[in-house]
Write a structure and sequence with these properties.
The complex is a heterodimer. Chain A is 78% helix and 0% strand. Chain A contains 3 helices and no strands. Chain B is mainly alpha-helical. Helix content of chain B is 72%, strand content 3%. Chain B contains 24 helices and 2 strands. Chain B has a two-stranded antiparallel ribbon with strand order 1-2. In chain B, strand 1 and strand 2 form a beta hairpin. In chain B, 49% of the residues are buried. Classes of the chains: A mainly alpha, B mainly alpha. Chains A and B meet through helix 1 of A and helix 24 of B.
C-alpha cells in the first residue's frame, strides 16, 4: 500500500502548479483551468485522508467540490465568452479598468 | 380675585395667538381690534379688582404669591412660574393694562388700512403679555423672560414697516444695544444664584438683609442689574437706541418706548430697592447717571425738528428724572413719576401720532404750524400734556417732578437741585417750542397737498381720557404740606419699608421747613412759566429756519454721540471682525487647519491608491504571498 505522504506530496505539487499558473499566465481560460487543477488537488487530499482515516466524510466533500467546480465552470466560461465579445481578447492583463 | 388672576396674562397671550395665527383670515379690522383691545382691557378690570382687594387688607399684608407650576428644576436649581402681587406690581399692572388698552383702541384708528393690521395687534398683545410677566414675576428668571419678551416685541414693532431700510436698522440697533444691558442682567442673575442659591426676589432680598452695608458682592450685583436697567431704560451710556426706535408706528412709541417698557429698568431697581439701599456707591452712580442723562437728553431735544424725536429725547430725559429719584433713595417718587409720565407721555405721543396722521406722515415740525384750529381735540389734549410735563400745577407732572426736585435738595444739596431745576426748565422750553411750532403761527405746509384733519373718535377718545389722567393723576401723590395724605407714598411704603430703614440707619433724613418747601415749589413753577413764555416769544412768529451753527449744531447732532459710538465701538469691531477675525483667523487659521488636514489625508490617499492596479494577478500574488507568510510563521515561529 502506498503511504499517505506520497498522495499529499502529489497533491501539493498539483496545487502549487495551479497557483503558479494562476499567477503567471495571461490567458483567462488557462487561469481557469489552473483553478480547476487546484480544486482537484484538494479533492485528492480529501480522498487520501478519507481512505487513510477510514472516514467517509472526506469523499462526501469531494462530491460537493466537484459539483461546485462544475457550476463554477459554467459561470466562468460564460464570463470568459462575455468578456471576449466585448474586448475581443481573453488576456487578463488587458482587463484592468477596475482601478483608481 | 386671585383665583382668576391668571387671566391677566393668559388673555393677552390668547389675543396674540388668535390674531397671530388666524388674524389674516379674520380680515375685519374691527374684530381684530376689538379682540386685542379686550384682551388687554379685561385684565385691567381684573387688576382693578385685585387692587381693591389688596387695599382692603392691612398695609402689612398686602402681598400675595401665586405659584402656578414648577417651571424649571435641575439639581438644586428650581424656578417656579409664580407671580408676586404687591402694591408695586399691581400699580404697574394697572398702568400697563390701562394705558395699554387705550393705546390699543387708538391703534384701531391709527393703523386703519395697514396691510399688517392683524400682525400689529398680535405683537402689541404679545408685548402686553411679556410686560405683565416682567412686573408680576416672583423670581429673576421669569422677570428676565418678560424683560427679553418686551425687548423682542420692541424689535418686531420698531421694524414693523420693514420695507423701509431705516426701520430695520433702528430695530437692530435697539436690539443690540439692549443685549449689552441684558448681559449685565444675566451676570447679575448668575451671581445671585451662585451666592444665594435662589432666584426668588423676595428670598434674595431676605438673604441680603443681614449683610453689611457696602458689601462688595452686593455692589457688583447692584451695578450689573443697573447696567441692565440702563439698557432697557435708555440711560447713559446705552440710551442711543431709543430716539431711533421712533421709526416704529406711533402707538408703539407711546406704549413701548414711553409709557411701559422703558420704565422696566426703573421698576427693576425699585423692586430690588433693598439691594441699592445697601450699596451707597451704586445709588450715587444711579443719581449721577440719571442727572447726566436728564440734562443731556433735554438739551438735545431743544434742537430737534422731528416731532417724535423731540418726544423721544424728552422720554430719555424724564427717565433720567426717575433715576435721580431712585438715586436719592426715595423709591416711591420714582414710581410716582413713572406713573404720571406714563399718562402724559403716552398722551403726547398719541397726540403727535394724531398730528402725523392728519398731516399725512409729515413729522418735521418746521413744516407744520397753525394746526390749532384744524385739529381742536388733538391740540387741547396735547397742550394739556405739555403743561403736565412742563410742571405747571396742578397737573400731574408738577407733583412728581416737584417731589424729585425737593428730594434732590434734601438728599444731595443745592447745586444739584439747581441742575435738576434747569433741566425742568429746559423740558418746559422744548415742549412748548414743539407746541408753538406745531399748533401756532403761520401754516408752513403746502395747503394744496396737505389737508390737516382731526382724527377719528377711536383716536381722540384715548387722547381725552389720557388728558384727564394727566390733569388729575398727580393727586395721588400730593406733598403732605397741603394737608392731604400722600396716597401713593402710603400705598407703596410697605414695599420699600426695609430699604428706607437701611437708608435711615445711615443718615437721619432732614425734614425741610414748610416755608423752604413752599419756596422751592414756587421756584420750580416760576422756572417752568418763564421757560414757556420764552418758548412762545422765540418761536411764535418764527418762519425761517436757518441752519444751526456753533452749540446749536452740536445739539442738533446729538453731541455727535452716535458718531462717537460709531467710530469708537462699531467701526473697530467691524474692522477687527473683517480684517482679523474673518480674513485672518477664520480664513487662514480655522479654514487653514481644516483644509490642511483634509489635503494631507487626500495626498496620502493619492499616493497609496496606486496599489489598486486593476490587474487581478497582482492582487492574487499579494494574497498568495500573505498565505505563504502565514504558513511560514506557523511552521517556524
Amino acid at each position: 500500500m502506498i503511504e499517505i505522504n506520497y498522495y499529499l506530496i502529489v497533491s501539493a505539487m498539483l496545487f502549487c502548479t495551479g497557483v503558479i499558473g494562476v499567477l503567471i499566465r495571461r490567458n483567462a481560460i488557462i487561469i481557469f483551468m489552473c483553478i480547476e487543477l487546484m480544486l482537484n488537488s484538494i479533492n485528492l487530499t480529501f480522498v487520501a485522508f478519507s481512505s487513510y482515516l477510514g472516514n467517509i466524510n472526506g469523499q462526501i466533500f469531494v462530491f460537493i467540490i466537484m459539483t461546485v467546480a462544475a457550476a463554477e465552470a459554467a459561470v466562468g466560461l460564460a464570463i470568459v465568452i462575455a468578456l471576449f465579445r466585448n474586448k475581443e481578447s481573453v488576456n487578463i492583463d488587458e482587463i484592468n479598468i477596475l482601478k483608481w | 380675585m386671585s383665583n382668576s388672576f391668571y387671566l391677566v396674562t393668559i388673555l393677552p397671550l390668547a389675543g396674540f395667538l388668535i390674531n397671530g395665527l388666524i388674524g389674516k383670515k379674520i380680515r375685519n379690522e374691527k374684530v381684530i381690534g376689538a379682540i386685542s383691545t379686550l384682551a388687554v382691557f379685561i385684565p385691567f378690570i381684573i387688576g382693578t379688582f385685585m387692587f381693591f382687594e389688596l387695599l382692603s387688607n392691612e398695609p402689612g399684608s398686602r402681598s400675595i404669591t401665586l405659584n402656578y407650576f414648577n417651571w424649571i428644576a435641575a439639581g438644586n436649581f428650581s424656578v417656579n412660574y409664580a407671580y408676586y402681587i404687591d402694591p408695586l406690581s399691581i400699580s404697574l399692572v394697572l398702568i400697563v393694562t390701562g394705558i395699554g388698552a387705550l393705546i390699543h383702541l387708538y391703534s384701531i384708528g391709527y393703523m386703519h388700512g395697514d396691510p399688517g393690521f392683524a400682525k400689529f395687534f398680535a405683537f402689541l398683545n404679545l408685548f402686553i403679555f411679556a410686560m405683565l410677566n416682567l412686573v408680576l414675576a416672583d423670581n429673576f428668571l421669569l422677570l428676565f423672560l418678560g424683560w427679553e419678551g418686551v425687548g423682542l416685541c420692541s424689535y418686531f414693532l420698531i421694524g414693523f414697516w420693514y420695507e423701509k431700510t431705516f426701520t430695520g436698522v433702528a430695530a437692530k440697533k435697539a436690539f443690540i444695544v439692549n443685549r449689552i444691558g441684558d448681559f449685565g442682567f444675566m451676570l447679575a442673575m448668575f451671581y445671585i444664584f451662585t451666592n444665594f442659591n435662589t432666584l426668588e426676589i423676595s428670598k434674595f432680598l431676605e438673604n441680603i438683609s443681614g449683610s453689611p452695608v457696602g458689601d462688595g458682592l452686593l455692589l457688583t450685583i447692584a451695578l450689573l442689574l443697573f447696567l441692565g436697567a440702563t439698557g432697557k431704560s435708555a440711560q447713559i451710556p446705552l440710551f442711543v437706541w431709543l430716539p431711533d426706535a421712533m421709526a416704529g408706528p406711533t402707538p408703539v412709541s407711546a406704549l413701548i418706548h414711553a409709557a411701559t417698557m422703558v420704565t422696566a429698568g426703573v421698576y427693576l431697581i425699585a423692586r430690588t430697592s433693598l439691594l441699592y439701599a445697601m450699596s451707597p456707591l451704586a445709588e450715587t452712580l444711579i443719581f449721577f447717571i440719571g442727572i447726566l442723562t436728564a440734562i443731556m437728553a433735554a438739551t438735545i431735544a431743544l434742537k430737534q425738528n422731528d416731532i417724535k424725536k423731540i418726544l423721544a429725547y424728552s422720554t430719555v430725559s424724564q427717565l433720567g428724572f426717575m433715576f435721580i429719584a431712585l438715586g436719592t433713595g426715595v423709591y416711591w417718587v420714582a414710581i410716582f413719576h413713572l406713573i404720571t409720565h406714563a399718562f402724559f407721555k403716552a398722551l403726547l405721543f398719541l397726540g403727535s401720532g394724531s398730528v402725523i396722521h392728519g398731516m399725512h406722515d409729515e413729522q418735521d415740525i418746521t413744516k407744520m404750524g397753525g394746526l390749532k384750529n384744524k385739529m381742536k381735540i388733538t391740540f387741547i389734549t396735547f397742550f394739556i400734556g405739555s403743561l403736565a410735563i412742563a410742571g405747571i400745577p396742578p397737573l400731574s407732572g408738577f407733583f412728581s417732578k416737584d417731589e424729585i426736585i425737593l428730594e434732590t435738595f434734601k438728599e444731595v444739596g443745592l447745586p444739584f437741585m439747581i441742575l435738576v431745576l434747569i433741566t425742568a426748565g429746559l423740558t418746559a422750553f422744548y415742549m412748548f417750542r414743539l407746541v408753538v411750532l406745531t399748533f401756532y403761527g403761520r401754516q408752513r405746509y403746502n395747503e394744496n397737498h396737505v389737508h390737516p384733519h382731526e382724527s377719528p373718535l377711536t383716536m381722540t377718545l384715548p387722547l381725552m381720557i389720557l388728558a384727564l389722567l394727566s390733569v388729575v393723576g398727580g393727586f395721588i401723590g400730593i406733598p403732605h404740606i397741603f394737608g392731604i395724605p400722600t396716597y401713593l407714598k402710603e400705598w407703596l411704603d410697605p414695599v420699600f419699608e426695609k430699604s428706607y430703614a437701611v437708608l435711615e440707619a445711615m443718615h437721619q433724613p432732614s425734614e425741610l421747613a414748610v416755608s423752604t418747601e413752599l419756596i422751592l415749589i414756587a421756584l420750580s413753577v416760576l422756572v417752568s412759566v418763564v421757560a414757556i413764555t420764552l418758548a412762545f416769544r422765540k418761536y411764535f412768529r418764527k418762519d425761517e429756519f436757518e441752519p444751526e451753527s456753533g452749540l446749536g449744531k452740536v445739539l442738533e447732532n446729538k453731541y455727535y454721540i452716535d458718531e462717537v459710538y460709531e467710530n469708537a465701538v462699531v467701526v473697530p469691531i467691524q474692522k477687527t471682525s473683517e480684517n482679523f477675525l474673518w480674513k485672518i483667523f477664520d480664513m487662514k487659521i480655522i479654514d487653514g487647519t481644516v483644509n490642511g488636514i483634509a489635503r494631507y489625508i487626500s495626498n496620502i490617499g493619492f499616493d497609496w491608491r496606486k496599489i489598486q492596479t486593476g490587474v487581478i494577478q497582482d492582487y492574487t500574488t499579494i494574497s498568495v504571498a500573505g498565505v505563504v507568510l502565514i504558513i511560514l510563521y506557523l511552521l517556524f515561529l
